[in-house]
Amino acid sequence: MGIYQVAFSVFIVFLVMVTSGIPITVTSMTARSQFDLTINQGSTVSAAVFINIIISLLAISIVLFFENIWRATFANPLSYNILIMLMPAVVFSSIGDSFKGNVWGKKHYFAVSCIELIEQTVRILICMLLFLYAKNSLVRANLAALSLSLACAASAVIMIAFYYKLGGRAQTPQGHVKAVFKMSAPITIMRVSSALVNFLIAIIIPKRLIVSGLSNSQAMEIYGSSVGMSMGFLFAPITLTGALAVALVPRVNEEYECKKLTCLGNTAKNAVGFSIITASVFIPLFFIMGDEIGMFVFNNQLSGVFLAKASVIIISLTVEHITSSMMNSMGLQLQAFINYYIGVVLLVVCIWFFTPWIGIDALIIGFGIANTVSALLHIYQIKKLTSMKLDFLKTLALNLAFMIPSCALTFSLKALLGFAPVLARLLICGAVAVGSIVFLNICFNLLDFSAFFAFKRKNKKRYGGKIKRFN
User: Fold this and answer.
1) Which of 252, 291, 300, 324 is nearest to 410 (CA)?
2) pTM higher than the cut 0.85
C-alpha cells in the first residue's frame, strides 16, 4: 500500500493540473455566458480540451523521459511501474472534466453525480475482476492503477455524450484559449501546489520515520497504513462539501459579478455552517469506531488507530476546503494561495521536527495546525469582502458540545456489543454515532428539513393537479 500511495501522490500532481482550474473556469464561464454574450460555451469547452490535452501530454512526457530520476526519487523504485499505469487516467480526465465543467455550469448536478458514480462503480468492478486472476500484492497494485485509467475513460465517454445530448457543439477554441488559461491558472497553481505538498509529504515522512529508528520497510508500512488507508475516510466529509462547493460556483459567480455582496456573505456563512455539521457527523464515528473500521475494511490495526486519532482534525480540513473554494469563486485566488502556503510552511515544519519524536502523529498535528490557520485566514478575507456574519461559530460550539454525549453513547454501546460480530457493531454503533449528531442538530434548529418537505408537498400537489386535469 505504501508503494502504491507514493506513486499515487505523484499521479495526483499531474491529475490536478487538468482537473482543478480548467473545469471550474468552464463552469464559471458557462454560468456567466447567460449575461455575458461575448462568451461562447462551445468555444470555451474546446479551449479547455485543447489546453488540457497539451498539459496531459507534457505530464506523460515528463514521466517517460525521466525514468531514472523518478526511480531514484521513490523510496521503492517499483512505485514507478504503478505511476506508468496511472498516467492514462490523466489524459482521459483532462478531456472528460472539460465537458463536465460545462454541464456543471448548466446546473445539471444530478447527471454529473450519476456519471461520477458510474465511474467509481466501473473502477470497483474492473478492479475486482482483475484481482481474481492476480494473487501477488504488487501485481494487484498495478491492476488497481489500471482500473482507475479504464474507469476514467468510461466516465469521459459518457460525459461527452451527455454534453452533446444537452445541445452542446464542437466549436473552434479561437478567442477563448487565452481567457480560459488566464482565469484557470491561479486556481490550478494552488491545487497543484497542494498536490506537490502531498508528494513532498510522501517523500519526507518515510525518511523522517527512518531517522526515528525504523527500517525502510517499517516506515513504508506505517506510511501506507496511515495515509494510504485512513486518509480516504478523513476526506469523506470533503467529498460531500466538495460537491456543494462545485454546485455553488455558478451561484457565487453570479452574486460576485452582480455585486450582491450581502447575498454572497450569506451563501458563504451557510456553506461554512453546513461544512461544520457535515464534519461533525463523522467525528464520533471515526473516534470511537476507528479500530473496528481499520480491521474490518483493511484488516490493519495501524490504520484504525491513525483514523481514530486523526478524526479530531476533520472540521479544520473540511472548513479549509469549502472556504478555499469560495475564495476562488469570489476572485480571491491570490489571497487563497498565500493563505494556503502559510499553512503549508507550518505543516512541513511540524512533520520535519516532530516525526522523529512522535512518529506518524506529527502528520496529524501538522494537518490540524495548517488547515486551521489557513481556514481562519480564508474566513477573514471573505468577511472583509462580504461582511459575512459569524453565525457559524454557534454551530461550531454546539457541535463540539454534541460530540460529548454522542461519543459517550457510542462508546457505551460498543462495550455492550463486545460479543457481537464486527460488522454488527459497526452498523449499530455507526448508526448511533451519526444519528445522534444529526438528531441534536435538528433539535437545536441547526438542521432544518422543513423546506425539503414543503418542496415535496408542493411538487406532489402540482403533479396531482396535472393528473386530475388530465383525467
Assistant:
1) 291
2) no
